[in-house]
Design a protein that fits this description.
Strand content: 25-35%
Shape: elongated
Number of helices: 10
GO molecular function, one term: DNA-binding transcription factor activity
Protein name: Helix-turn-helix domain-containing protein
Order of helices and strands: HEEEEEEEEEEHHHHHHHHH
Number of domains: 2
CATH class of the largest domain: Mainly Beta
Pfam family, one: HTH_18
Oligomer: single chain
InterPro entries: AraC-bd (IPR003313), Homeodomain-like_sf (IPR009057), HTH-like (IPR037923), HTH_AraC (IPR018060), HTH_AraC-typ_CS (IPR018062), RmlC-like_jellyroll (IPR014710), Tscrpt_reg_AraC-type_HTH (IPR020449)
Radius of gyration: 26 Å
Helix content: 40-55%
CATH architecture of the largest domain: Sandwich
Keywords: DNA-binding, Transcription, Transcription regulation
């Protein structure tokens, strides 16, 4: 999932055209059979309960859920008979258009995937109901200034959405985010991980992530990753007769000489000295 900052960067490059805006209260028997979506749209559920199935995955359609649909999605939508859903929707077209190095770059929606898709949970639902109410009212009016106001409201909607996502991240369990990256390092230590990519995975700035990781785990992120790699290297040195170059590659180092220097710095012995001292000979 993209971070709020990444979504903002993508949205900033898009130009939107509102195709249709509406508000609907469903009947208890309402259902839309499985269909292939042809247009970009989003739906805000404001009342009731239901189930939306997107590409085979079931999602709860209930107040505070915001759904983004895109062409090609297989979607089925149905309401709960006892609590029929009520929702606002907005269908839109967009193109990617931005200036870079004094040149205008334009891409169609087919070339530029929309940064939001599927279901999102909102923290401040009443605020988004207000935006949708305003967009619906303006949709029923005509005029160039009204059209401009609709575009401004849609931009305010995107901004409010990003602020909502960011607030949820800040309010979330940051310790869980740290533990998530810790588990990720355990499973992917052999890959070229960077501090920036780990911070992004946690949804935190690099500086905040580094401070919080050391507070929770006791090591800096890079020190923790280095110790993981060296622990695995020690196992390979003791239990196998792999060449040093192969061991270095298997724990995430492309340069065996750099690996050897790091190993000695962390362990206190060179890899060859460590293997000679601790290698377990095979049972005859």
């Amino acid at each position: 999932m993209l971070t709020p900052g990444e979504i903002a960067a993508r949205l900033n490059r898009l130009v939107f055209s509102i195709v249709l805006t509406g508000h609907r209260k469903c009947e208890p028997t309402w259902v839309q059979p499985m269909r292939t979506i042809r247009h970009h749209s989003f739906w805000l559920i404001v009342k009731g309960k239901g189930t939306f199935t997107i590409n085979g995955t079931h999602y709860p359609a209930e107040p505070g859920k915001l759904f983004f649909f895109e062409p090609g999605m297989l979607v089925e939508r149905r309401t709960d008979e006892e609590q029929p859903i009520e929702y606002y929707f907005l269908r839109f077209h967009y193109t990617e258009t931005y200036e870079e190095k004094e040149q205008w770059i334009c891409r169609s929606s087919a070339e530029s995937p929309f940064p939001l898709q599927g279901m999102y949970t909102l923290q401040n639902t009443p605020q988004f109901i207000y935006w949708m109410e305003q967009l619906f009212v303006l949709w029923q009016r005509r005029g160039h200034m009204t059209a401009m106001r609709r575009k401004i409201l849609l931009q305010e909607f995107w901004l409010a959405l990003l602020q909502d996502f960011r607030a949820q991240k800040i309010a979330g369990d940051t310790t869980a985010a740290i533990e998530l990256t810790q588990d990720y390092m355990v499973q992917h230590y052999q890959e070229p991980l960077t501090l920036e990519s780990l911070a992004q995975l946690a949804g935190l700035s690099v500086s905040h992530y580094s401070r919080l990781f050391k507070k929770v785990i006791g090591y800096s992120p890079i020190d923790y990753l280095t110790h993981l790699r060296m622990d695995r290297a020690k196992e390979l040195l003791v239990l196998s007769d792999y060449r040093l170059k192969s061991i270095a590659h298997s724990v995430g180092y492309g340069d065996e000489f750099y690996f050897s220097r790091m190993f000695k710095k962390v362990v206190g012995l060179s890899p060859r000295e460590y293997a000679k001292r601790y290698r377990i000979d095979p049972v005859p």
